[in-house]
Amino acid sequence: MTQEDSSMPVSHEDLKMAVDRDFLEVSSSPSRKRAESEVSRYYDAQEPANGPDSDLLDGAQSLSLSQIPDTEFLPVNGPQTAGESSSYRPGASVGTAAAPPTLPSLQRRDSGRGRAMAKELPRKSSLSMPTAPLTFQHHHRKGSSGSISRIYTAGVGGGAPSHVRQPLSQGFLRGSAPPESTSVASETLQNSIPPFTSNESARPGLNGRTRSLSRTRSLSYMKRMEPELPDFMVSAPAKVIMYGEHAVVHGKAAIAAALSLRSYLHVHHLPRDNRTVTLHLSDIDLNHTWDIESLPWDFFNSPAKKRIHFDTVTSLDPELLEALQPSLAPIVNKYHSAATAFLYVYLCLGSKHSPASVFTLRSTIPIGAGLGSSASITVCLSAALHLQSGMLVRPSAKLFEEECVRQLKRINDWAFVGEMCIHGNPSGVDNTVATGGKAVLFRRGDYSKPPEVKRLEYFPELPLMLVNTNQPRRTAELVAAVHGLRNSHPTTCGLMLDAIDNVTAEAMMLLDNKHFRPDDSHLTRLGELVRINHGLLVSLGVSHPKLERVRQIVDGSGIGWTKLTGAGGGGCAFSILKPVQAESDEVKKLKVEETLKEEGMVTYEATLGGDGVGVLWPAMLGKPEERSSITKEMFLAAEGNDGVEALVGVKALGTGRLAWGFWREWLPEEA
């Protein structure tokens, strides 16, 4: 008798349909494999009493010894012996029923071989079982002491009670009693509790066997508790306007360079069943959580309002801002505009299916000092949201220059949207420098058109002393004062603004020269242009006694050249430092820092012309063989600027494949 003679043939495709759908959805993450292995060990230990998993056949209604057919042939796996057919081995007759169809044996779904087979099977919700019984074979897990193959039969018709399911060895089919299991796991775990047990009561399986929900529940539980993405970090620099402030407002050029003081944004992903997003700006005491589902997605995703990652947005939509107000109402912090910028960009770039996250930001940039701290934050948020949505390619040595330009433009465009939420009508120079790094020549004659931006690709890295006078100032009032002066003295003020423009042009010729050497006369000429520019700004009336005191202390000691930066009237000044030639030069520098500290000012040692926005993916530190995660708690626990830089700083972790990566269209990325 052959399989073709069977009155009720069952195809192998039918068995494929019977594979548990839950198993097909199990991901290949190492943590889930370990957990599934623990669950499998428990059920393997209980197998002599309960039989193997009932998940192998979805549509089987019962398993009964009485339905085992009378046949001389039982399907088995393994090498054939002499005299056997190609598909069967002879076996003892048990009854008078017709021989069952020959079917390939099934592996346990938690075995390596069974898992590989299951991945190829189609997902189908049900199985229409034939009335004829099915036979299939089960093998113990690798390493189990009870290695005898076991045969099971499944029937749909009447017969034995539906809850009966027992393993049958070949010896028992030939008339002997079933052997006792010798599994070590059974002896060890017979009284144990399966991992990830459920508090719900057990329910009968589809084949009638009463089984625990713990296994399937454990897999879905692990799936819910596993974040969709790893934690990562984004960083962007501050900026210093070296030449051209105030003149740039009147259509002249300005040079702005990246400063090594940076903002760092840590993105922590929550379990999948959590549907919240949190913005935590620890430096300004802003910490708020929103329910993702309750945000105005329908309004932002409407066809008339929807924006995509590739769009260039030049103005804010008043109706979208109005739709945000209910979500922003609980925030009474004076930095309400920062939350507005985050939500506006988040709703434009994300969706209601965006992963639940906590955005935690810390910055080493002085706030309100004219160094572009807000632009640094918006660049970090823009890059993080693009990465989270999969719309950016992470920095790589193999990334083409043209692709780097596209990635940076996308980040910069949406960072400018955030800047508009904070400042209303920003120039765009701050976010441009924070995105691309190095330095740019910036000019905006017509505010109805995009600005002219030229990257200074040969800009050298220059040592810098930054001094924060801690003197508050109002940028709008200072800009208005220069406007008034120009209206009163158009010719004289016009000449001063032209002179500032000439200083900027000459400085650009020096800085954008690949032959620039910071240790000779080039640096001296650059310093003299710094002093001239500062004198012209003093003539325009935008300096302050504290700024003049800084210039007196630094320039009087002979260690560098000083000028105010930004709008003036307080805020910060910077000094380009001369090269240290002897130990006495270092002593002078330390004495200057002590003097400034005694007068209530704060000094920073920094570098001009560094990298722009960068990514640390995933957020880990340490050597390749002993890397560890940077957690949100570690990030918040870092003490002060020095602690943040020591933990996650670019200098501390370095650059490269396992460290900080940067999009650079002008320099090759490290391997």
Task: Please sum up the structure shown.
GO terms for molecular function: ATP binding; mevalonate kinase activity. Belongs to the GHMP kinase family. Mevalonate kinase subfamily. This protein has 671 residues and is an alpha+beta fold.
Which key terms come to mind for this protein?
alpha+beta, Ribosomal Protein S5, domain 2, 22 strands, disordered C terminus, disordered N terminus, globular, 22 helices, nine-stranded mixed sheet, 671 residues, four-stranded antiparallel sheet, Alpha-Beta Plaits, 3 domains
Verbal overview:
The protein is an alpha+beta fold. The protein folds into 3 domains: about 5-225, no CATH class; about 225-460 and about 610-670, Ribosomal Protein S5, domain 2, CATH 3.30.230.10; about 460-610, Alpha-Beta Plaits, CATH 3.30.70.890. Strands 8, 9, 10, 11, 12, 13, 14, 19 and 22 form a 9-stranded mixed sheet that branches. It has a 4-stranded antiparallel sheet with strand order 16-17-15-18. A 3-stranded antiparallel sheet has the order 3-4-5. It is globular. The two termini are about 65 Å apart. Mean pLDDT is about 75; it is low at about 1-5, about 20-25, about 45-215 and about 665-670.
Show the helix and strand layout.
Layout: H1 12-16, H2 21-24, H3 30-45, H4 47-50, E1 73-74, E2 89-90, H5 112-118, E3 134-138, E4 150-154, E5 168-169, H6 170-173, H7 184-189, E6 203-204, E7 210-211, H8 214-225, E8 232-243, E9 253-269, E10 276-281, E11 286-291, H9 297-300, H10 318-328, H11 336-349, E12 357-363, H12 373-388, H13 401-423, H14 429-436, E13 439-443, E14 452-455, E15 462-468, H15 475-488, H16 490-511, H17 521-539, H18 545-557, E16 560-564, E17 572-577, H19 583-598, E18 602-608, E19 614-616, E20 620-621, E21 628-629, H20 632-637, H21 640-648, H22 650-653, E22 661-662
Parallel strand pairs: 10-12
Antiparallel strand pairs: 1-2, 3-4, 4-5, 6-7, 8-9, 8-19, 9-12, 9-13, 10-11, 13-14, 15-17, 15-18, 16-17, 19-22, 20-21
Helix pairs in contact: 3-8, 10-11, 11-12, 11-13, 12-13, 12-14, 13-14, 15-16, 16-17, 18-19
